[in-house]
Design goal:
- The chain has 346 residues and is an alpha/beta fold.
- The strands form three sheets. The protein has a six-stranded parallel β-sheet with strand order 1-8-5-4-2-3, with helices on both faces.
- A hairpin with a 2-residue loop joins β6 and β7.
- α5 runs parallel beside α6.
Length: 346
């Protein structure tokens, strides 16, 4: 598990880490939105040769990865060259994958400029790109030297990106049975409470990942809500649209809660609270029963399944009491999607 630094001054934290570890960055990978909004804040990175990808999930592809490999080659990068990934989950996923495969692996640092990257994508060693419309189809486990959570860049986030990170924080709160959970389901917290919540999320994920770094058993709990979330992302990609990952997770959590009630007796109080949070704070979900076949096909392709004929979920008996590898039938999925749409009024 890589180290994590949470800071209000990413420039200073990066400079200190590089000096203490006698490192010199060679190349910067980011996206065009982050380049515009965050380089004026983390000014030391502006001097580096860089590649800024076009933002968006549809660009997390082998073609973009090849562009980054080419730029590293043109800069005469060696196996000792340090790549810095500055941005959100797409940047850390693709940049980490490119680093892990260029010359069989070069060191890299993630600087998380979004709440989602801070609590999920930039830590834990998962890197990946999309293929054939399937999210994270090609990837490898590779750990950054350090992840720097740049709180000073969060002010640049649009509301949807903040909510996307919050969706992953809700997942962790449900998994850990956090005492914060009831409050989190009543209102989205402000910046003053955020640092402590991020610290708790990182501590919980670190504990899980250190016990199961390659997701053979225990780490599967971190996929709570993701079976449906990844299917929703695939659905939106098929429409040439994008749903932020953590927002898809937030809606995936609702389906998970419904199935958990039907299969494991989870209290409906959690379904009611979570539904209200979604309706009052999150952008509405675009979903009809005609979308079910595509969603179910995507769930069959989920990496957590033992084979493509089964759909496996992580479910909850109660907050803090997850169970992994529970087989759920297509009919149960359709029922849960129907119930979700009833709750949401869509």
């Amino acid at each position: 598990m890589n180290d994590t630094i949470i800071t209000q001054n990413a420039d200073e934290a990066l400079d200190k880490y590089l000096k203490e570890n006698q490192l010199r960055p060679a190349f910067l990978f980011t996206d065009k939105n982050v380049e515009r909004s965050c380089l004026p804040i983390i000014t030391s990175l502006a001097r580096l040769p860089r590649m800024a990808m076009t933002p968006g999930e549809t660009n997390k592809t082998i073609a973009t990865t090849e562009q980054l490999w080419t730029r590293l080659h043109e800069q005469q990068a060696t196996r000792h060259s340090l790549l810095i990934n500055l941005g959100g989950g797409i940047v850390s996923d693709l940049g980490g994958f490119a680093a892990a495969t260029f010359k069989r692996g070069i060191p890299f640092i993630n600087i998380a400029t979004t709440l989602l990257a801070a609590v999920d994508a930039s830590i834990g060693g998962k890197t990946a790109i999309n293929m054939n419309g399937v999210k994270n189809e090609i990837g490898i486990f590779a750990w950054p030297l350090v992840t720097i959570v740049a709180l000073d860049t969060f002010s640049t986030l649009p509301p949807e990106e903040y909510l996307s990170g919050y969706g992953e924080m809700l997942k962790t709160a449900f998994l850990s049975g956090s005492p914060w959970l009831p409050k989190m389901l009543k209102e989205v917290p402000g910046q003053e409470e955020l640092r402590e919540m991020i610290s708790q999320c990182l501590a919980f994920k670190k504990e899980i990942v250190e016990k199961d770094p390659h997701e053979t058993s225990l780490r599967k709990v971190l996929n709570l809500g993701h079976t449906v979330a990844h299917a929703l992302e695939t659905l939106y990609l098929s429409r040439q649209r994008m749903i932020p990952h953590g927002i898809a997770v937030a809606y995936g959590l609702l389906v998970m809660l419904i199935i958990s009630h039907l299969r494991l007796g989870l209290s409906t109080d959690w379904i009611t609270l979570h539904t209200r949070l979604l309706k009052e704070n999150f952008p509405p979900l675009s979903l009809t029963c005609e979308d079910y076949p595509l969603l179910i096909r995507a769930m069959h392709s989920d990496k957590k399944n033992r084979d493509s004929s089964h759909i496996l979920f992580t479910l909850l008996r109660a907050p803090g009491a997850p169970e992994i590898d529970i087989e759920v039938s297509e009919e149960e999925v359709r029922t849960a999607l129907d119930v979700m749409r009833d709750y949401l009024g869509i």
